[in-house]
Write a structure and sequence with these properties.
The structure is a homotetramer.
Chain A (H helix, E strand, L loop, with lengths): L2 H8 L6 H9 L9 E7 L4 E7 L2 H7 L4 E7 L8 H18 L7 E6 L10 H8 L4 H6 L2 H4 L4 E5 L4 H4 L3 H12 L3 E10 L8 E5 L18 H4 L3 E11 H18 L4 H6 L2 H12 L7 E4 L2 H20 L14
Parallel strand pairs in A: 4-5, 4-6, 6-8
Antiparallel strand pairs in A: 1-2, 2-3, 3-7, 7-8, 8-9
Helix pairs in contact in A: 4-14, 5-14, 11-13
C-alpha cells in the first residue's frame, strides 16, 4: 500500500507542500512533471523552493499553482536567540523575494488560530510580537515613516470562540481597510515527527479549506479576498497515526531487507495495518493530534522568528541589529 | 466656578449619564427638562434609569436621546460570588427590558479595549467569559438550540495594537455577519472615585467618539453600524485631576460653611484652582488616569457579572442556577 | 519480549500504580501476592484502590507499601461542568478516607511543575484555583473558622526555572511552617494514550525520584519531609514510544491470532522491534513526550476537579453546592 | 503643619529613602547630620546615593544605617528599548559597587509580590525575566561556568495567596540553599506622582516590616536571614491622599505667596486639611492606592531593566550587547 493511500485512509492532509513533494518523489527521487524544486543551504537552515508550474503539477501535488518556500531548521526548537536571529534574516530575504510589495503597499497580517490552545496559538503570538504602523502613517510626521511600510494586524480568533467563520471577519476587515496584501500566519499539521516546530512554510496560494489545525471551512485566498494572500505556516502538531505509521514503515523496511523475513512482508495486508493503527487511536476517536511536551517554548521561538522576519521584510528601513527593539 | 466648567478645563468627559445628571441637578435636586429619572432599590444594588426624552434633554445632558440604565453596587468590588450572582440576576432583568430582541435575533457582542492594559481589558474579558452559540445554530440539531439565541462575540483590539480603527473591524464584521443587534462592552472613565468598578451603565445609544478610556475616534452606534447598538460600560479609571478636584470641593465647602473662613472662599479665583490642579498633574502630561491597586480582581469581578447577565438576558432558556456552567 | 522489558529498554517509568498492576496481572488476570485491588463504580467514574501490603508486593510492583487510589473517567476530558462537579464529589470522598487528618490539622498543598509548560502546569494550576485559609486562622474571629481547616499552598517552580531542587524549597518551608500533612499535586507520564487527562491518582507514599514529567531528583515523601505526604497526580503526557508500542502490540496480536501469519510472529526478534521504535523517535532524541492538542483545556478541567475535591475534603464545613464560591 | 506629620496622619510610609531625604532637607536644602548624599548624572538617568552613617542619621531618617542608591529616569516609563538598555548598564555599575560579592558567591534573587495584581507584580516579573544558573553549576562542565556566578531565583507569592508569611518561605529556602547573598525585588509606594515607575532604589539594609505595597509583617534583612540582604524596589503605586496632598501644597503655596491671600493661609487649620483629605478618600476606606492606567507596560519596562542590570552585575562574563540573549 502506498503511503499516500494510507494518509487518505487516516483522513490526514499534508499541510506542507514539501512533504507532499517528498512523498511523491519517493525514494527513487524521480522528477515530478509540472513541479520545480530548488534547495539552498545556510548556516543554520535549509531552504527548499517548490514551484507548481502548471495544471499537471497542480493535480499531482493536490494543491494550487504557486510558490511554496520551506525553511527547515531543527535549531528552531532550541533556545538560542542568536541562531534564531540568523534564521530570521534568512527567512526575511526569502519573504522579500516572494512578497508582492510596492513602497506604499498596505499590508494586513492576520494571526489565525486559538490563543487559548497552545499548539494553535502560533498566529496570535506572531501578531502579539508584531508592531502595527498603519495608524502612525495617518497621524505621524513624514520622517517617522521613513523606511517603514503601513502594516496592520488582526487576530480574529476561531469559530469555536467567536461563533463566526474566521474568513468572514477577515473579509469584512479587508473590505474596510483595503490592504494591498494579506499575510496569514497559521499552525499546521505535520506529516512527520521531525517537522514539528522545525519548519516554516510560506505559500503564495493563501489558505485553503481544511488545512491548518483549526478546521477552517472557507478558503482565505486571492479568490475569496480579492487581494494576494500569502500564507505562513509552522507544523505544531502531528496525527498520532503518523507516529505509528512511521514505526510501521520502519518495521516493513526491516522485514523487506532481512532475507529471512521477506516472505512475511509479502504476506502482510495493508488493510490490516490500517485497522491496527485505527484501533490504537480509538480512545481519542481516531483523531488524536499530539504536540511535544515543550510546545509552549517551541511556539514562542517560531513566533518570534516569524515576527522578526516580517519586520525585516516589510520595513526596508529596519536595521537587522535593531529589529528586536521594534517588536512588542 | 461650576464643576462642569472645571471638567471642561481639564478636558474630562463624563462617561456616565448618571454623573452628568447628578452634576446638572446639583444639590438643589432640581428637575431637568426633557429628562426623566427612576430609581429602583435591590438587596445588593441600586438601579437608576435615566431617559432623555427630547432635544432639550439632549442639549442639557450633552448626550443622545435614549435610555441609560445604571446599576450601582460597592459590593461589586468585593470578592463575594453569591452577591455577584444576585447582582447579575438584577442586571439581566434590566437588560431584558432594554434589549430589542426577537426569538430568532442574532446578537454580536463586542469587547472593546486593550487586553494588554488591565484597566482597559474589561471588554475582552467579558468576551472571554462568554460562550458563542451562533456556530452551533448552523450545525447542531434543533433540540440543542432550545432556549438559546444565536450569539457571536468579537474582541477587535485597539488602534495602537492593530493599526486599524476598532469601528472599521466591527463594521466590516457586521456587514458580513448581519446581526440584528450589536452589544459593545467597554471600560469607561469615572467622574468620582466612588464610581470605579462599582457601577455598570447600559445605554441604548451606542458608543460615541471620545468616550471610554481608549480614545475611539469613530462612533459605534446605529448611525454608523446600521443596526441598534447597546453600550455596556464600567468606569475603571479616574482622572487624577478629579481626585484633587474632589478634595478642593471639600475644602471650598469647609471654607464656605465655616463663618471665619467665608471671606477666603470668596477670594479664591477658580482659574488659580485649575492652575494648581494642572501643576500637580504635570509629570504625566496632565493626563494621568489612575486605577485602584486592586484593578485585576475588580475587573474580573465586573466582567464575570456582565457575562453572566448577558447569558441570562440573551438565552431565555438558561436557568439562573446553571448559568455559570455555560460561561467559559 | 515482555512489555515490562520493553518499557525498561525505552527508559519509561510507569507513574500510575494501576498501570503497573494491569501490566503485572496481564491478560490472565492472575492475583499478585502482597497486593490487593478493589474497584468501585460511580455514575461518571470508576475508582480502583490498590493496596501494597508487604515487601513482596513492594518488590513485584516496584513501588512502596501504601494505598494507591485511581479515579478513571474519560469525561474528565470533556467540557461538562456538572459532570466534573459529580466527579469532584466522588474524589473528595476518597480523599477523606485516605487523608490522615484531625480537626486542627495544618495542611500544606504544593503544586509541583512548570507553569510555563502547559503539560507540566497541573500542580501550579491546582494551587491557583485553591484558597489558602491558614492566614485567616491567625487573625480572623472564631466564627469564620467554623468548618474550615488551616490550609496553605505553594507552587515552588522547577529546577530549570529556579536553579533550586524543588524538594529543597518544600523542605525549607515545611521546617518553618510545620504542617501536619503535605499534599503534592503533579503531572505524570501515562503508560497508554487512554490514560491522558482521564485519570487521577492519589498515593499515600508521596513522590519518589524520577517520577512525574519534571525529572525530580529528590523524593518528596515522609522519609525526606518528616510528615505524611500524599501525592495526587494526573498523567498529561505519553512517551511517543508508547504510542508506537501500542501499535506494535496490536500488530503482533494480529499476527499471532491469524493462522497464516503465526510463523511471522515467531520469527520477529524483540530487539529489532526496539530498534525500530527508537529509530522512529530519533528526531527528538528518543525522548519525545507528547500531549494532546487540547492540552490547555484538559489540564484546566482536571486542575479544577482536584481543587474542588481538595476544598471539599479539607474543609468539612464546605457545602458541595457552594464550594465553587470558595475557589479562586 | 509639616508634610511629615501629614504623612503620619494618613498612615503613609515613605518607601524611598530619597523622598524621606528630600522631605527632611526641605526647601532650605539644609544638611542632615549623619547622612551623606551624592549625585551622579548620566545621559538618561540621575543617580543619588544616600548614606546613613550613624545612629543620629538613623533616627532622623527613620531607617537603618546603610547605603540607598536611587536611579531616577522618567524615560523608564516610555517604550524605548535602547534607552532602557543604557539605563540598565548604568544601574548594573551601581549594583556592582554595592553588592558584596566574591567570584564564587551563590546569590538568591527573590521576587516579592503578587503576580495576580499587576501593580504588585514587579518582583515576580523580574524573576520571570531572569535566568537561574545554580543548577548548571552542579552538572555542567567548567567551561560553561566561565564568567557566570551561581544564581537561583524564587517568587514565593504573598500571604493572601499562600497563607504563609513570605519571610518564612524565604528563610526556609535560605536555610537549605545557603546562599551568600539575598537580593529582594519588590514594588513600593511612592511619595509623589512623579516617582511612579520612574525610580529604582537599591538599599543595603534589606526590607523592613510594613514597607512595600504588600503589607509584609516580618523583616527580610540580615538580622532575620543571617546573610546580607539587598533590596531593590520601584514605586508602582501612590496613595490617593498624596495626590490630593500635592494639590493642597500647591494651593497653600499660592495662598502664601499671593499677598492678598496670605491671611487665608494663616487661618487654615491643618487638622481640617486632613479631615478633608480623608473624607475624599472615604469610599475606599481611606486606603485607596492608585496606579497609572499604563501600569502593565510600565511594570514590564522596569522589570526588564532590573533583570538586565542583575544579569550584568551578577555575571561578570556577560557582554552587555548579548545580555538580552540570556534573559528569559
Amino acid at each position: 500500500m502506498k503511503t499516500s493511500e494510507l494518509y487518505n485512509l487516516l483522513g490526514i492532509n499534508l499541510d506542507l507542500a514539501v512533504e507532499a513533494h517528498e512523498l511523491l518523489r519517493g525514494e527513487a527521487g524521480r522528477e515530478i512533471p509540472g513541479v520545480k524544486m530548488d534547495e539552498e543551504n545556510y548556516d543554520h537552515s535549509t531552504v527548499k523552493i517548490i514551484t507548481i508550474l502548471d495544471e499537471q503539477g497542480e493535480q499531482i501535488m493536490g494543491r494550487a499553482k504557486g510558490t511554496y518556500v520551506t525553511l527547515e531548521s531543527p535549531e528552531l526548537r532550541v533556545n538560542n536567540k542568536m541562531v534564531h536571529k540568523n534564521i530570521s534574516e534568512v527567512f526575511a530575504e526569502k519573504l522579500k523575494q516572494i512578497l508582492p510589495l510596492n513602497d506604499d503597499s498596505v499590508i494586513l497580517v492576520v494571526g489565525l488560530g486559538n490563543w487559548n490552545a497552545t499548539p494553535d496559538s502560533l498566529g496570535p503570538k506572531v501578531v502579539n510580537f508584531s508592531m502595527a504602523t498603519r495608524h502612525l502613517f495617518q497621524y505621524a510626521p513624514q520622517e517617522l515613516q521613513q523606511g517603514l511600510r503601513s502594516v496592520c494586524v488582526l487576530a480574529p480568533g476561531v469559530l469555536g470562540i467567536t461563533g463566526i467563520e474566521t474568513a468572514e471577519i477577515i473579509k469584512g476587515t479587508v473590505d474596510r481597510v483595503k490592504p494591498d496584501l494579506l499575510i496569514c500566519v497559521d499552525a499546521l499539521a505535520a506529516g512527520s515527527v521531525e517537522r514539528i516546530n522545525s519548519t516554516i512554510q510560506v505559500a503564495t496560494t493563501g489558505i485553503n479549506p481544511g488545512s491548518g489545525i483549526g478546521n477552517k471551512r472557507l478558503g482565505i485566498n486571492e479568490e475569496t479576498m480579492g487581494i494576494p494572500v500569502i500564507a505562513i505556516g509552522v507544523p505544531t502538531v502531528v496525527h498520532a497515526g503518523i507516529i505509528t505509521h512511521q514505526a510501521m514503515e520502519q518495521l516493513f523496511n526491516h522485514l523487506q531487507t532481512t532475507p529471512a523475513l521477506q516472505h512475511v512482508y509479502a504476506g502482510l495486508q495493508p488493510v490490516a495495518v490500517n485497522e491496527i493503527i485505527n484501533k490504537v487511536l480509538e480512545p481519542f476517536g481516531g483523531q488524536l493530534m499530539v504536540t511535544p511536551k515543550e510546545v509552549d517554548d517551541q511556539i514562542s521561538f517560531t513566533a518570534k522568528v516569524i515576527a522578526t522576519s516580517l519586520a525585516l521584510a516589510l520595513h526596508p528601513g529596519m536595521p537587522p541589529d535593531q529589529v528586536e527593539h521594534y517588536l512588542q
